[in-house]
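Subject: Re: docking follow-up (NAP)

Dear J.,

Thanks for your patience while I sorted out the input files. As discussed at Tuesday's group meeting, I've set up the holo structure prediction with NAP included as the bound ligand rather than trying to dock it afterwards. The sequence and the ligand SMILES I used are pasted below, so you can double-check that they match what you have on your end before we go further.
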Amino acid sequence: MQPIEGQTALVTGGAKRLGRSIALALAEAGVNISIHYRGSQAAAEATADDVRAKGVKAVVLQADLATPGTAVGLYESAVAEIGPIDILVNNASIFRQATLAQCSEEELHANIQLHANSPLQLSRCMSAAGRQGVIINLLDTRIARHDSAYGAYCLSKRMLADQTTMLALDLAPNIRVNGVAPGPILPPAGSRDGLMDELAARVPLQITGTPDDISEAILFLVRSSFVSGQVIYVDGGSHLPRISRHISCLFCCNTV
Ligand SMILES: NC(=O)c1ccc[n+]([C@@H]2O[C@H](COP(=O)([O-])OP(=O)(O)OC[C@H]3O[C@@H](n4cnc5c(N)ncnc54)[C@H](OP(=O)(O)O)[C@@H]3O)[C@@H](O)[C@H]2O)c1
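The structure tokens for the complex came back this morning:
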């Protein structure tokens, strides 16, 4: 496993929730962190304080990555403030109900910009620096199936998934590119009581995951110097195709 102590990471959407947990896990491993936020400045500053408490450097940087043209400026600011980036974690996300049939063009563009194009521009900046590095893209177990209620989200996350494998080839040998596809980990803000129990019942392992499950997968990928173009599903088996017992019975004993 590759030592990562003393390296520097840029974590987009790193102020809260999974981004914060990823930033703290990397900091625990000795990595300096550039914490990007869009609106959560106070939370970003608090995460930076907690990162510094682990004995590494932290800076906070603001950018709206759903706006075209902002990603390059964010990357340049990160390099100027904390030094060259070794680890890029494309985590920032929006998760709004919008079917492909009905969502506005603006909503579609925002999803594609935030989940696919800004990660691409950040990845290109990293490649242009000409150093060795690793990129981790936060995907979603939904890339393995269709969740039409979140059509714009799923389509743009699928773009990011394809980008993960395409860039793994394009940016080799200097840069490894991998993805982590979480299942239910944290409920979306404002969701109803009991949602996570309902979601757990649909997961093959009958549980939901934790932020630590995601951070552990990311640390594995960051340290694994011979792994590129991989997606680890951290989803309790949710991505696996399921044939209903009713149909499989037709195959095995020809009775229904
Ligand atoms: N939570 C889960 O259970 C789950 C499940 C499957 C996949 N995932 C994936 O895992 C990642 C982290 O999940 P999460 O639930 O922690 O994410 P989240 O809370 O939905 O979003 C993370 C951060 O993204 C930032 N963001 C939103 N719009 C932005 C914009 N226009 N420009 C820049 N940043 C923006 C926000 O920063 P500010 O707060 O600073 O505005 C937010 O805190 C996401 O990529 C998500 O798709 C999560």
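A couple of observations from a first look. The first strand starts at residue 8 and ends at 11. Residues 13, 15-19, 37-40, 64-66, 91-95, 114, 138, 140, 182, 184-186 surround NAP (CB under 6 Å).

Let me know if you'd like me to rerun anything.

Best regards,
T.
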